[in-house]
Design goal:
2 copies of one chain form a homodimer. Helix content of chain A is 54%, strand content 14%. With 198 residues, the first copy, chain A, is an alpha+beta fold. Chain A has a 3-stranded antiparallel beta sheet. In chain A, helix 2 packs across helix 3 and helix 6 packs across helix 7. The longest helix of chain A is centred in the last third of the chain and has 20 residues.
Amino acid sequence: MGISAQQVKELRQATGLPMMECKKALEESKGDAEKAKEILRKRGLKVADKKAHRETKEGLVGSYIHHDGKTAVLCEVNCETDFVARNEDFQEFTKKLCMHIAFADPVCVRREQLDPELVAKEKAIAEEELKKVPEAKRAMAVEGKLAKGLYAKKVLMDQEFMHPTYEGKTVDEALRDLVAKLRENVTINRFCRMKIGE
Amino acid sequence: MGISAQQVKELRQATGLPMMECKKALEESKGDAEKAKEILRKRGLKVADKKAHRETKEGLVGSYIHHDGKTAVLCEVNCETDFVARNEDFQEFTKKLCMHIAFADPVCVRREQLDPELVAKEKAIAEEELKKVPEAKRAMAVEGKLAKGLYAKKVLMDQEFMHPTYEGKTVDEALRDLVAKLRENVTINRFCRMKIGE
C-alpha cells in the first residue's frame, strides 16, 4: 500500500527518527500511525539493548538550581562521543532529568545501589502481605510489589519522569527512547541533590 | 590623637566593617592603617570563634558550572538566618568557593573526613622523615608536615583559596573573615564536584 509523504512527515515529527525508518514502520503497520509508533518504540528498545554495553566516557554534567538558591542538583549523564554530548536532545534530557531529581528526590540511580537492609525489610513486608499467593508465583509477586512501591519511590531509574515531555514513562524508559533516537549508548552515572534544611 | 574621617572611610572600604569599629581600631593603632587592619582581623577571629557553635540552618546551595558543561560544583554553605543567606558578601563567597572547588579539587571539607588509612600512611612517612627531631617535638613537627602537605592539598578548609579576593588566605581564614564581617556563624556543610572523564 502507498504511504503518503505527509504521513511520514507527521511520524518523523512525533518520533524524531529518520525518514526511512518512519516510512518502513508505516508500511509495516499498513498506514496506522499509532501502530507505527509502537513498532518504532519496540525497535528502539532493541537498539537501546544493543548499545547498552558500549562504553560511555563523554557526556555532560547537567544542573538545576532552583531560583531561591535553596535546592540544587547536578547529574552526570554520559554518552559515547562529544558530538552527542552537544546534541540538543541530549542536553534537554539532561536538564529535565536534573529538574526531575530536584522534585522527586530519589536516593540512588539503580536498584542495586539501595541500602540492602532497607530492601530486605521491604521484601519481608511484601512476603507477609502476599503469603496467600502460591509459592511458585510469590517471588515474582513480591518483586512486582517492590517495583511499584520502594523502587518507584526511591530509585531514579524506576521513578515516573516528572516532566510533561516524558509523561507516563519512567526515567529508564525515557532514557531508552533517547538511546534509540541518538543511536549511541547513554548512561546516568550519578547525581547530587542538595537542599537547605534537609 | 585625632583620626580623620578620610582614614576611617578608607579602612571601612578595605574591611567592610562598621564605622565605629574602624575608628576605634585606628585610635588604638595611633592612625597606622596597616596596624588597624591587623587589630580588626584579630578581633574578627575572636568574633568568629564565639559564633562557631551557633546553629546554622539557613543558607544557600552555591553552584559553579564550567562553560563547557564538563565540570560542575555544588556547595552547601549555611548561616543562621535567611537575611544573611541573601547578603551579597555571603553569596559572593559561596560562588567563589564553588569556583575554587572546581579547580582545586579537594576530597573533603574537614581534616577528620579524610580516609583514616591515608592519614596513617602519610603520618608514617612524615615520622620516618622527621626521626631526627627530638621526640618531645616530633608529634608537632609531623602535624606541621601534614598541614603543609596532605591537608593543604586535599582538605577544602586547609587549601589556599584560589581567588584573587582571598589571596594568601586559606578557605578557613576567608570563612572566619566572613563570619567576623557578617556577625553570624557560617559553615561549609558539604560539596559535590563532578567532572566528565574522572
